[in-house]
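Our preliminary data section would be incomplete without showing what the modeling component actually yields. Below, a chain of 250 amino acids is followed by its predicted structure, encoded as tokens that our downstream tools consume directly.
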Amino acid sequence: MRFLRLTIAYEGTRYVGWQIQPNGVSIQLLLEKAWTAVTQETLRITASGRTDSGVHALAQVCSLCTHSQIAASKLIQALNANLPFDIRVLNVEEAPGNFHAIRDAVGKTYRYQIQTGRIQDLFQRHVRWFVPRNLDIEAMQEATQHIVGKHDFSSFEATGAAREDSIRTVRELTIQPFQSERFQFIDIEISADGFLYNMVRNIVGSLIVVGRERQGSAWIKTVMDARDRKQAGETAPAHGLFLVHVQYDW
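Predicted structure:
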């Protein structure tokens, strides 16, 4: 038996998310079908996390256990030949025995992408949340100081999610504005030892409240101390979210 680690990228626009679901086509379904087409082997491929409908990945990590002896380089080529244009296998490598993409992950980095201003860049509409006004970037950056560190993130967890606890450590949170000739963009990047369901999108939605000057930067701390999802801002749309990196100890 071989344990393999796959790194894949996908644009999530056309899919119901990573996980196989009865209501539409998922990334997992298509990847497993491609694997069967290449190896004649039916198996379950596990991803580091279940990205939601419309969410994208630059480097999602997957694990599987296989009897196939096809070389890694050949697997990349063959799998991509059997996948649609918006899903790509970037790397296949041998993994330690019993490698598990979820269990062995020690950290993740997500990026949330925004466009601001009066006119939407139509070519970014599937990968950026369009906020039709300018934002107070400095206030948003000040607000991040209340998020970085080890905290209870209950206020940023989707209602009804089941977790043993809501304590997570945010290692880094940056807000980077930039612009092209016509348009203004913001990238929000967050790294943590783990994430609650919708945690990134709920943090972003609350930062936008600050950016719109509806609340001051210290309001974020008030929200976190409340440990109540109802006190935070709206959930940012899924299509602006990217899984950037998954960290392992090997």
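The two ends are 20 Å apart (CA to CA). Residues 2-94 form a domain with the Alpha-Beta Plaits fold (CATH 3.30.70.580). Preliminary results of this kind motivate Aim 1 of the renewal.
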